[in-house]
Amino acid sequence: MKYNIRLEGSDETLLTLGTLLWKCGRYDQTEQFYHRILEQTKSNDNFTQYCYQGLSVVAAVEGDLDSGLM
Fold this sequence. Notes:
This protein is mainly alpha-helical. The protein has one domain: Serine Threonine Protein Phosphatase 5, Tetratricopeptide repeat. It is 69% helix and 0% strand. It is built from four helices and no strands.
């Protein structure tokens, strides 16, 4: 599934969507979502931190601990 992400919402709204995908067990989609957000946003320390944290959680759940350390 491809996402057309329009970054008009608040950071919290986008992060909530990532969390929702993760809680639904859609780990591949969650990972794609966070990567896409990181590609499309400016470097915002807090926002970037939460995206990478979400990616680390997904990697840990999938058992890919090396990927979670990046």
